[in-house]
C-alpha cells in the first residue's frame, strides 16, 4: 500500500481547490507551525479506504518528507466525499494517543441460537509507539452466548499498547431474541360481544 502523500501549495478557496480534484489539508504538530496545503483527492481516498490509521510519508513543498497520521477527516454528509483533512506530524520515537478500529471475527454461538449481536464500541483509544500501530484490532467473539457481553477489560493484551478506554466500557453484547407480541387468548372474542352489548342498549332505548 502506498502511504506517500504529496502536498502542494494551496491557492484559492476551499471549493475551488476541490473542483480541481484536490482536498484542503492542514499539517501541524512535532513543534511545527500549522500550515495549509492541498493533496490529491484520489490518493487520499485510496489511503483512507484501506487504512485510515496508517503512518503517512508526507512530502511538503520545499522540505524533507515528514511522518504523519490523519488526525481528523471532514466529509460531505450525503456523498461522503472528503472535504478537509488534518495531518498530525509525529516523532517515530515518541508515543502517541490514537484510535484503532475493532475487527470482530467468528460467528457468536448466541447469534446462531437466535440472539442479536449489538456492537456498542467500534474503536479503542490507545497510547503506543507509531511502529506498534496496526490497521485493526482483531477480536474473536465466536464464544459469546445469549446474554454474554464483552468489556474492554476482557480484551487480550496487545504488545506495546496502553489502553486508554475505561475497562468497564461495553464493546459488544448478545441480546435475547425479540419475542413477538400475540393477543391474549379470548381478547378477539370479547371485543365483538362488547360491541353487541352496545347495540342492544341502543335498541332498547
Describe the overall structure.
The chain has 205 residues and is of the alpha+beta class. The protein has helices at residues 14-19, 41-50, 109-112, 187-204, and strands at residues 4-9, 22-29, 32-40, 56-59, 66-75, 82-89, 96-105, 116-119, 123-128, 136-140, 149-151, 162-163, 170-175. The protein has a six-stranded mixed barrel. Strands 10-7-9-12 form a four-stranded mixed β-sheet, with no helix packed on it. The termini are far apart.
Feature tags:
19% helix, six-stranded mixed β-barrel, alpha+beta, 205 residues, disordered C terminus
Largest sheet: 6 strands, mixed, barrel
Number of strands: 13
The termini sit apart by 87 Å
Q: Low-confidence parts lasting 5 or more residues at pLDDT below 50?
A: 200-205
Order of neighbouring strands in the sheet with most strands: 1-3-2-6-5-4
Strand content: 35-45%
Oligomer: single chain
- Structural class designation: alpha+beta
Task: Evaluate the radius of gyration.
Answer: 28 Å
Principal-axis shape: elongated
Instruction: Note the run of SSEs as H and E.
Output: EHEEHEEEEHEEEEEEH
**Residue-averaged pLDDT:** 86
Q: How helical, in percent, are the residues?
A: 10-25%
Amino acid at each position: 500500500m502506498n502511504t506517500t502523500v504529496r502536498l502542494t501549495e494551496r491557492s484559492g478557496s476551499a471549493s475551488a481547490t476541490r473542483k480541481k480534484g484536490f482536498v484542503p489539508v492542514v499539517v501541524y504538530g512535532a513543534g511545527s507551525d500549522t500550515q495549509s496545503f492541498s493533496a490529491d483527492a484520489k490518493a487520499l481516498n485510496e489511503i483512507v479506504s484501506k487504512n485510515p490509521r496508517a503512518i503517512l510519508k508526507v512530502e511538503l513543498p520545499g522540505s524533507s518528507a515528514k511522518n504523519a497520521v490523519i488526525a481528523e477527516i471532514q466529509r460531505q454528509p450525503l456523498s461522503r466525499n472528503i472535504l478537509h483533512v488534518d495531518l498530525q506530524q509525529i516523532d517515530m520515537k515518541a508515543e502517541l494517543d490514537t484510535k484503532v478500529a475493532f475487527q470482530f471475527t467468528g460467528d457468536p454461538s448466541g447469534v446462531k441460537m437466535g440472539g442479536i449481536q449489538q456492537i456498542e464500541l467500534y474503536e479503542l483509544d490507545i497510547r503506543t509507539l507509531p511502529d506498534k500501530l496496526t490497521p485493526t484490532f482483531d477480536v474473536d467473539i465466536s464464544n459469546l452466548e445469549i446474554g454474554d457481553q464483552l468489556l474492554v477489560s476482557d480484551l487480550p493484551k496487545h504488545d506495546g499498547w496502553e489502553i486508554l478506554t475505561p475497562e468497564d466500557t461495553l464493546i459488544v453484547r448478545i441480546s435475547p431474541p425479540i419475542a413477538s407480541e400475540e393477543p391474549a387468548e379470548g381478547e378477539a372474542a370479547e371485543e365483538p360481544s362488547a360491541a353487541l352489548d352496545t347495540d342492544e342498549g341502543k335498541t332498547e332505548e
